[in-house]
Design brief:
This protein has 216 residues and is mostly helical. Helices cover 82% and strands 0% of the residues. It is found in: Cell membrane.
Amino acid sequence: MSGALSDGLSAVAHTVSEAVVPPPESTQQALGYPSLFLLVVLGSLVPVVPTGALVSGAAVVALHQSLPVFALLSVFGIASLAAFLGDIGLYWLGRRGVGSKNGSRWLSALRERAAPERLAQADARLREHGVAVLVVSRLIPAGRIPVMLACLLSRMRMREFARGDVLACLAWAAVYQLLGVAGGSLFPRPWEGIAAAVALTLLVSAAPSLWRRVRR
């Protein structure tokens, strides 16, 4: 009985997967690239959008196109540029709050998202390593905001922040794209690879938080 049920579910899953017809590549690129750019910019300004998962999913789609190398390079370039512009925009808004007597809602939002102990750690690393810490902060889940806030409170100039952040965004896009390629290469169909890549990305993002809770 259980074997028949399992066979039936497998047949249904196969039928559904065969019915999923991806749109043409031209449509995927015309809609996907601008959407990726806008969502990564938005996720950098408002840190609630899982931008890493977006890049991993886009990498899976690119992996299954007729010119995967070109598509992957396009995803990498778009994601890096969008993350950089979002970071620069958020830093500029934060600098306005630091220089204002009344502060700003953007600076207040950054303070709310950075725990005092995380901010103290970020400040210490910033003093020790300088802008190089920006690269690491982009790769550590939930590490970007405390380091950015430490840069704001130390009144780091925009040019200096941008110099470190451009490398951070390039490294970030490369890592999450590799996660997408790793997940997508395991499955023949794009939607299966996207699901695996997104799950892998979310697992990597949640691992440090879960580890801290276990230690406590």
